[in-house]
Protein: ABC transporter ATP-binding protein
Amino acid sequence: MTENVLRVDSVTAGYDDAIVLRDVSLGVGPGSVVALLGPNGAGKTTLLNVVTGVLQPSSGRVVLGGEDVTKRAIAQRAKRGLCHIPEGHGVFPSLTVKENILLAGPRGKESESFDKAVEAFPVLGERRSQIAGSLSGGQQQMLAVVRAYIQSPKLVLIDEVSMGLAPVIVDQIFEFIEQIAAQGTSLLLVEQYVSRVLAIASHVYVLNRGEIAFSGTPQEASSSQVFDTYLSAAS
Ligand code: ATP
Structure:
């Protein structure tokens, strides 16, 4: 069996006295797009924080590429190929587009990184000298995704990439996400735009009140019972 790029094993976690995640387990395979869905407040962002190392679980394990990283710091997980695009915070707003790209890519390969970024989203080349904070929301998300891409990560966690964007822009970003996955990078997407993410995901987890309420294929997730119970408000 192929080793999962990410395994979350029986994680329980929360803030102070409040338990937010209870006995949560999930896996992300190589080159796959996995959707993490569920109602507001279900604990999706909290789970991403446990994977990145921002939040330490009270029990359970986070395993990256077969290695238990539960006690490892954020930077050590990043070195192992983990990349996180937090909701609304994927770029440095006061730096230019080009500076954002060059800071993300490997040292010594600046022009290669810039070319890769512009090839992915040509509009970023046209706007290379613009301050990132003055880009449209869609262009900022393109920049955030590209910043992750040029780091050649093994796993990218993306929180609500489609938030507030026009459907045509979401389509462009999701097409690019599919391309990255086809090149072997795995992605775990937290999404509100359920119908669009179901179209590109190979596996779906639904988190509800801190527990995995559903795990299955996008087709199964679209079945009326799962959809109506957990996803219809978010679609
Ligand atoms: P949303 O879609 O609304 O972002 P979510 O599924 O990502 O929801 P979380 O943001 O993980 O859910 O929040 C889960 C619960 O944890 C909520 O009750 C929230 O109020 C609480 N919570 C989140 N962050 C903190 C924090 N830093 N301190 C205390 N409680 C928090």
User: Anything to note?
Assistant: The first strand starts at residue 6 and ends at 15. The mean pLDDT is 92. The chain has one domain: 6-89+152-234. Residues 34 and 188 are 5 Å apart (CA to CA).
